[in-house]
Amino acid sequence: KLGVPNGSQAKGMVVTATGLVFATCKDGRVYAYNADNGDVVWTASLGRYNPRGIPAMYESNGRQYLVVCSTGALIDKTKKEEEVPRGYVVFALPNT
Hints:
It is built from no helices and 7 strands. The protein has strands at 13-15, 20-24, 29-34, 40-45, 52-60, 63-70, 87-92. It is an all-beta fold.
């Protein structure tokens, strides 16, 4: 696949040694792409549009974690601000 992942322009990406590319997108989601063919292998909603900053990864006790800053406007306008996390959202990657 060619081009830039939809919505990820001007956003941060993390490339892993295992061949995954994590990208935040203006649609309020974070995506994991297969670096070899561009296929989406995972996605998650952050609950807020337009995540900020560059995602980060860290390891603790042998497990990898992805950190994304999510502070934009609510995607679901039927929810209250306090119902959707604002700030850093951490995803634990599956154990391999």
